Amino acid sequence: LSNFYFFFFQAEDGIRDFCLSRGLGDVYKRQKDSSVNGALKLGDWYKTKDIIANGPEWIIDEIKLSGLRGRGGAGFPSGLKYSFMPKVSPDGRPSYLVINSDESEPGTCKDREILRNEPHKLVEGALCVGFAMRAKAAYIYVRGEFWVEGNALQKAVDEAYAKGFIGKNACGSGYDFDVYVHLGAGAYICGEETALLDSLEGKQGKPRLKPPFPANAGLYGCPTTVTNVETVAVVPTILRRGGNWFASFGRKNNHGTKLFCISGHINNPITVEEEMSIPLKELIERHAGGVIGGWDNLKAIIPGGSSVPLIPKNVCDNVLMDFDALKDEKTGLGTAGVIVINKQADIIDSILRLSKFYKHESCGQCTPCREGTNWLVDLLTRMKEGNADFSEIDMLEELTYQIEGHTICALGDAAAWPVQGLIRHFRDCLLYTSDAADDLLCVDLGGRRIIKKK
After folding, report:
1. 32 or 106, which is more confident?
2. What is the C-alpha to C-alpha distance for residues 344 and 323, in angstroms, rounded to an integer?
3. Is 339 helix (H, G, I), strand (E, B) or coil?
4. pLDDT tens digits, residue range 439-448?
5. Which residues of 110-140 are buried (b: 16+ CB within 10 A; e: fewer)?
6. How far apart are the first and last CA of the chain?
7. Does the bond joining 223 to the residue before it have cis omega, within 30 degrees of 0?
């Protein structure tokens, strides 16, 4: 990333809020103090005691009213998810909140910026959400490579303890709440919630069979909710400004603001906060400096991180960046990691690189994923090199459907969907790399068709 923009404004009553990028500027150009004193100046920890005094049900209702959906990829309604936790534990088991910061999805770089620049917003959000679920403690699982970010978060937690914001009698509310920071070992699979829980418990990170679901038997066999960093970090602002305020942004069922990570063949790689349902073309041209070579030089975009299918330029021209609009185009918002691919790129090689990633990161527990990811890489390599047969295109597509939906976790789906998008929209490129004539081979390299002898 060359830049990171988080836009806020300072309200007259001292409340700092998420704000649209068309608002009043970049807060980090004015203040780069991520300490507790800097956070207090910007409105974090403002009347948190009063928020807690409203009670758990009020907090859940406001989150439901806001229309907040999970920002980690699935997009499940957050208020509903938090309400699944038991209100009373008949057997005395404590409840836990686990925050997933194992951000390993290629093209996604939002949570690390919150940890680096806004750690107190996350810690305060953990307190609010944890109280709403009657949790005893929060565990924040940070990707092992995030050494700087992990240290920044641990510093914020220590400062919050020193100020009395968390721990015994958190914020003077009478509620006891602890926050623990745990660094993982860099395994992509630990981004899956049950694999993350196993890793927290000191086991090898591998997804668990469901049921039981974490809300009934999660961390240490206790009721647990696993949620995303961005989802938790926005909660204090929602509770201060009201659910209706947050719901005023975006379309129906796609409310609020969102962090978009824009990378690839653009002039200004950036992570920016914008309103949900912004047109994809506007997002790229306004904040990322446009596509290298101009919009007409665009070939495709992966709109939600590496695990969602790509969409071609004709779809990108008008599609909106929200859950429902992208679902209608047979892709997804995912983590909003926007990867731009222009016409100078080899589209087959681009998807092959993603397939190699999923092959490397498969935990090997499920046969369709363990074996299927190897086959994906082998077939795509043959097509890239021009050694494939026409029939292997259909074989490749059938393989993706044999992987999709046949694994314990969604890594199999994540490996299959990019290849499905390639076949759906760029089948001609695959045909060029198959046997096009008895003695000739046609290879499409970013629009340059090279004819060579076998």
Report:
1. 106
2. 29
3. strand
4. 444 444 443 3
5. bbbbbbbbbbbbbbbbbbbbbbbbbbbbbbb
6. 42
7. no
